[in-house]
Design a protein that fits this description.
Length: 223
């Protein structure tokens, strides 16, 4: 999943971003509200993590502008403003969750997983397709009860496909979700990772889960 962190306190921004990257997320980061708005309008994100008090544009106004344009990306506010009216304003501006600084990083990760579950229409951290099972909290993958070891990027690719089970995903969609603005890879990098993943997921099984849609992309389906 691709996450945007907008926090003007640079050290905290770095710590949050690195913690998310350690969990396998692709992360973009910036340090003021206007840049955050520009980022959020330019590519699709799975979650926005926003400070409230920021230069150029505060977090509440940033979200109001996104919602006015129909952008429904889940938003988590991180702020030291812990008054009831602050929380009310944050939620009414279009935010989804509100964590008060200082916060525990375990709680932050749990909230991020909860937000992505909600918007993927899943009630648990477990995603399945036939005999394939991915546990997003435990970061484990099994097929027919057999454990499958994946690299961080292979895992991210599989999770993205499971969250979009039955949907044909283009190369551009996958690139936008799995890599951030700093990525400078080759043009066939998605094909390479897809090949790696298919070998691990489908080799030795009669029923294939990952299918090529020629001229369009790939799809994960159970039939």
């Amino acid at each position: 999943m691709r996450i945007l962190v907008v926090e003007d306190e640079k050290n905290l921004n770095r710590i949050i971003s690195e913690a998310l990257e350690d969990e396998g997320y692709s992360v973009d980061r910036c340090f003021n509200g206007q840049d955050g708005l520009d980022y959020a309008e330019s590519v699709p994100y799975d979650v926005l993590i926003l400070d409230v008090m920021m230069p150029k544009l505060d977090g509440f106004e940033l979200v109001r502008r996104l919602r006015q344009k129909g952008n429904a990306t889940p938003v988590l506010f991180l702020t030291a403003r812990d008054g009831v009216m602050d929380r009310v304003e944050g939620l009414e501006s279009g935010g989804d969750y509100y964590l008060v600084k200082p916060f525990d990083f375990k709680e932050l990760m749990a909230v991020v997983r909860a937000m992505t579950r909600k918007y993927a229409g899943n009630r648990s951290n477990v995603y399945t397709a036939g005999d394939l099972r991915l546990d997003a909290a435990a970061k484990t993958v099994t097929r027919a009860g057999r454990s499958i070891d994946l690299t961080a990027k292979e895992y991210a690719l599989l999770e993205y496909m499971l969250r979009n089970k039955g949907v044909v995903l283009s190369r551009e969609m996958i690139e936008n979700n799995l890599w951030n603005y700093d990525y400078e890879g080759g043009t066939n990098v998605v094909d390479v990772y897809m090949s790696y993943l298919r070998k691990k997921m489908d080799t030795g099984f009669d029923k294939k889960l990952i299918h090529t849609v020629w001229g369009t992309g790939w799809v994960l389906r159970e039939d």
